[in-house]
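Our collaborator T.R. sent over the components below with a one-line note: 'Predict the complex.' Nothing else. No constraints on interfaces, no templates requested, no preferences about which chain binds where. So this is a plain run: every listed entity goes in together, and whatever single assembly comes back becomes the starting point for the next discussion.
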Amino acid sequence: MTVQRSPRLEDVAGAAGVSPATVSRFLNNPSIVAPATGERIRAAIEATGYVPNLTAGALAGGRSRLIAALVPDIAQSIFNDTMEAMIDVLASDGNSVMLALTGSDNHRLLTEIHTALARRVDAIILTGIVGDPETRDRLRAQGVTVIETWGLPDDPIDVAVGFSHRSAGQELARFLRGRGYRRPHLVVPCSVRSERRAEGFAAQWVSDGGAPPSRLEVNVPSHFGQGRLSFRALADLPEQPDVVVCGSDWIAQGLIVEAQAAGVRVPDRLAVTGFGNLRMAGDMRPTITSVDVDGGRIAREVLRVLQARAAGEPVERRIDVGTRIIARESA
Amino acid sequence: MTVQRSPRLEDVAGAAGVSPATVSRFLNNPSIVAPATGERIRAAIEATGYVPNLTAGALAGGRSRLIAALVPDIAQSIFNDTMEAMIDVLASDGNSVMLALTGSDNHRLLTEIHTALARRVDAIILTGIVGDPETRDRLRAQGVTVIETWGLPDDPIDVAVGFSHRSAGQELARFLRGRGYRRPHLVVPCSVRSERRAEGFAAQWVSDGGAPPSRLEVNVPSHFGQGRLSFRALADLPEQPDVVVCGSDWIAQGLIVEAQAAGVRVPDRLAVTGFGNLRMAGDMRPTITSVDVDGGRIAREVLRVLQARAAGEPVERRIDVGTRIIARESA
DNA sequence: CTGAAAGCGCTTACAG
DNA sequence: CTGAAAGCGCTTACAG
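Returned assembly:
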């Protein structure tokens, strides 16, 4: 039994009686080869069991169709819905997604950026906010397409698709004030983006005549357990809030569970809001009022940007997809 | 301002006064170049800002250091902890992970396998169980390293690293029987793996003298909301169970929330178990008795297999990492 | 320990 | 619509 090399373009060309160039054209742009030729090539591909070598294609064509997505984590990430949509949408257009984990550690971020560049990805998608100006400059100098998502910086590295965390916070403040709440308490994960939302909330709240909200900071990544602890920490506040504004749906869920275990009815005695509008938010008891980020929309805009770049067309630098408050039972 | 091509190996070689081959050796295996030469090369890399082209390297070297991980989803996946560990561990050894989503759809699975093969990945990691024999054969014929994780088939496609779902179910049956429960009810997501666990549970339970457990099937991916519905469905049972064995921690969590809202104390009136030992399981109120799968261990074994393959060493076909029951408050 | 040279499997002007 | 040829940027026997 001889070990067979896997067939190459040349083998397909031979079987179809055409040149390798024609097979390549058929694979990448079928409409430019004659229908009859195309049919022979299709048959030859079938007969040989040819699987194109995208690595060679990437090297020769200068386009890898590889996209790097850098996320802090996936075990418990608020980005997962968006990332799932992203992978789906990008795959539907022939791209593959390289997922890299950065934690909240700038060094790992740099390492993964380097790896992505070395793989000659067509684009790097960044979730969250890259604070370090040096990293931003390095990336800019590199000339790759860089897409920042979720956050929407004033001055994007390259292109940003997302929403203003500040505005999201402001909207939530107006919404809760409109609902008659008067003493909000903020549970804020230690990340730049949550910070921004909290700032937006507080600024709006005060400008609308409210007293500055109290706040508690919790570690990232935020999770269910922190919600429970955050509820207990309320006991230490000089004045009890009437609504707790949580930095994520997980925190909100944990807080509700703990509140109810303590006999505190939500929202009657204490209202709660989350962030992210995870599927669970609509399923929880009570259902959780949250802020929805349209991951599918973000994914589609990202694809549009990528396609425009590939076609050499100009692209907007900031694409605001906004957020939407989903009013449910918890607040 | 002229646009500069990014520097190549040749440019580094020129700057260091050596041949490209030597720079390549320094990059891939520093110990085989003379220390002084290595130092000059390092300086040249620094000076030129060289970023190696891994695409070219993969083509020339026949090793991509790209690993494809195929998962059903990530928005709400019980594999996320394992995948996170996998990405971490593989990245630490210079690999990148291409994440592809397959849903529960065999056609998409085939498409993604084809893409992975076209990218000439070093290995394909499959989570869950590939039932279709034709797909299994195609993959076997291809000669790539294929690693099935979580499930542990009797006859792996290539290598399997995981645990026996059947045994996990059996262990849980013995555990609950030992705790004195007598009327288990199974909530079973419609996936081959959950099925297997349920079968293992039922077989063991009956062989230990119990009556065949009642069961409810729910859609995959399983989520919190299904847990709530599953609790309500209990009302339709002719006899009430004393413990509900849930196919995932999410289902368990939802079921507990709904039970408590209905005034049913857990575990006093109804005990509950989950599966997966997500972080949330330990944080929930009551904490959830679950079955732990050691994702870190799986990831390390996968890396070991990959390294052995790269070195041309033989590898075991089935690596059983087992599972562990984590007894907590809920059962 | 190092270099010259062939080759990995494609894509893409260029020419017809 | 199709082909011949150069080239993408590396790695790796082979030789010294």
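Summary for T.R.: Chain B touches chain A through 50 residues (CB under 8 Å).
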